[in-house]
Known about the structure:
Oligomer: heterodimer
Radius of gyration of chain A: 28 Å
CATH superfamily of the largest domain in chain B: Beta-grasp domain
Distance between the termini of chain B: 53 Å
Number of helices of chain B: 5
Helix content of chain B: 25-40%
Order of helices and strands of chain B: EEHEEEHHHH
CATH topology of the largest domain in chain A: Aldehyde Oxidoreductase, domain 4
Amino acid sequence: MSVTGIGASVRRKEDHRFITGQGRYTDDINRPGQAHAYFLRSPHAHATLNRIDTRAAAAMPGVLGIFTGEDLAADKVGGLICGWMIHSKDGSPMKAGPHPALAQGKVRYVGDHVAVVVAETLAQARDAAEAIVVDYGVLPAVTETASAAKAKTQVHAEAPDNTVFNWHLGDKGATDAAFKAARHVTRLDIVNNRLVPNPMEPRAAVGDYDAGEGAFTLYTTSQNPHVARLVLSAFIGIAPENKLRVIAPDVGGGFGSKIFIYAEETVCVWAAKKVGRPVKWTSDRTEAFLSDAHGRDHVTHAELAMDADGKMLAMRVKTTANLGAYLSTFSSSVPTYLYAPLLSGQYDIPAIYCEVDAVYTNTAPVDAYRGAGRPEATFVVERLVEVAARQLGKDPAKFRTQNFIRKFPHQTPVIMMYDTGNYAAALKKALEIIDYKGFPKRRRDSARNGKLRGIGFSAYIEACGIAPSAAVGSLGAGVGLWESAEVRVNPIGTVEILTGSHSHGQGHETTFAQLVSDRLGVPLENVSIIHGDTDKVQMGMGTYGSRSGAVGMSAIVKALDKVIAKGKKVAAYVLEADEADIDFKDGNFTVKGTDRKLDFGSCALQAYVAHKFNGQDLEPGLKEGAFYDPTNFTFPAGVHICELEIDPDTGVTRIQRWAAVDDFGNVINPMIVEGQVHGGIAQGVGQALLEGARYNADGQLVTASFMDYCMPRADDLPSFEVGMTVTPCPSNPLGIKGCGEAGAIAAPPAVINAITDALGHEDIAMPATPQAVWRAAQKTLSRMAAE
Amino acid sequence: MANLSMTVNGKPVTANVDPRTLLVQFLREHLRLTGTHVGCDTSQCGACVVHLDGKAVKACTTLALSCEGASVTTIEGLADGTALHPMQEAFREHHGLQCGFCTPGMIMSAVDIVNRRGHDLDEKTIREDLDGNICRCTGYHNIVKAIAAGAAAMAGGSVKDPVPPRQAAE
């Protein structure tokens, strides 16, 4: 391993600009003549828009234009789309209502977009928005996930019973039969709480229109600018792709929420042409709470059947998923194909059957948030497994081990073919790190101090490397999920990598350069990574689902292989040898059995000057591209163990120790991978202990600021002990599985299993706030006193 | 409109501003010092932390006019020319940042913690004193390490000195 190659904890190349304040985020971009947009949002969760009177507002100082849904319709601007078709059990397509970028006729959640004001300054736009008079016909709101299908209020006429689809996966007959034969059944009702992603950089957009070229440019906070361009062109109809450039510069976190194509970006780029000025919008934090796509929000009943020895026989799951007021870009895939196929967890379960009802409510749209479906599945599996172990009187570690899948490849009953893994090895290592044997003593020590100590396990699996295009196409995806790469070798041997992946904190400028440095033998500083600009990178699918390593870097490998193959041809001419005799290693082309060599930079120069070969026999230049389509998902897996202490007097839960052992396959940069694990755990702990988006019965979001929605802070968390096991992924050239979501997937059940262990209760709802834990702890104390 | 003069990163600046202009707006929009970020508008997240006469303040809830005659240091003014401040170097060395958006505020708060609490910081002190800064990416693990190392380096040590994680006594 070189000091900069694959496997080295190289310090990040991108950091210098971030630590010196030279990062370039969308809100840092200002175009000459720029105007500012402010969105007038609905204060009602559900209302008819009887009349919007903009006359007084239009006369306010600085106002350049006020637009409503009627203006978009008049310009034939299409609605926002959901790109994944799900079919119900009866074969009917999902029932989707229209999703205009500015509301038409009706508003359906608090924060829905009523009108946009474009003015010289933001303050003028805000002032004018206040002068718009809207006559709302307020309607009753439906906000509860579990009861939405029975509500009298209908969010969309197109979806009777507020039901988008009734979907299922698995073999119902085999599952029901296994339950009949079971000796023990564990049953659990589970709520997966609604979360707000809250990347620290709020969404922003700057739309620009070049009248001379008839071309638009959109600067935006996107995880996938090419998909944004595709949707804005092909479906929304802003402009053809060749007349629309989308640039996502530095992006300050995403966690899924910046995958989607939203109303504000759409309106800004369209409005730039209407007012003949660049138009900028930056979300404030409350707007982000109201209008960024939320995550999770499932209500589930789950059952696990076992034989007399505790061998798992079958699982049955019925989930209602809240998709909010409109179908966001990938919303329909999250509670279906990103959820149910993971219900086998790490366990050999012969039969699984899952039903999912997706409902509309008068709440913000719900879509992918870090993990997307997989945290929800893991929470179901790992809570069921933990409760089952306790009911059977088995040690939770031994019960898991008893049921682990041991032979690979393993076909689960829910689509997935796990390619490789070693689940027992990860559990063993995690038990060692946490010192499981010492736990009873630590528990006694806590008890002596009046504290309740608990330990909780989570053996998670996820499907990453999203995804084989034909496979997802057959499941309803509207796009292929390959990735692209282009390797441009400059004449003096520096290298530019153009990738369709994008980075919003993952450190691609470093890890991708490490790969190139490793393969081509060029210094790290001679490699530049270019991403996030549709004019530079031709096409790409972006970054989400922990796919940039497994899919994005595989595309780079494929293109690098082509560069090396071309380099060998050039070297053969220069070194006057047969191409078959040319080797490439450590940055040098050599002739087998001789000391003749040509370094990579000299080869590049020779490729461009083209003096040593006939340009008709071999094309000059050294530039290659590749599209890589994965052949399978990848299956990162691991075991997290949380040990915590509860103060029964205050209900405060303090996490004492956290052991994380993950198998991500081969690792490019351990420092960065560990950082991803840390951040994921923090978000998972946030879900379990602190975070919860709450709508009241009127549909008001009562947790719409950082003062009402509890974000994890430094003193809510411990330091983490991170270990790794490695079974290389067999389906991609680097053996990578992906690491971006693992912590967020693993953490919530580990925390809740630990709290319920400490309290001796079967369940506690997330977030397990001090108040909730205090109430539960009082029951524990009464019971202990009675004993 | 009102006249305003202050010193920013050692340079005198004057401007004629709308009286409701916030310090962060003045820095970002008038001076184009875009390293200071806005992550919320309720003094919660700390992405906007700058030093006002040597003390950390949240620039998103400070009126620019209230800083008349003051000396402001932003993230752009922390390094000594091309030589990074030890705290900047420590964040890089210990991978104390991912997306980078909270980072300027984190670094400015971290320097302020050292100014207030000294160079020998344990984990509990760092975590409690970081209460005004939110990071969504890192889980704080490496930020805590970076601040401990940066604090030591500000006293003349190296940021690469190993910093053993010290679990705070409960």
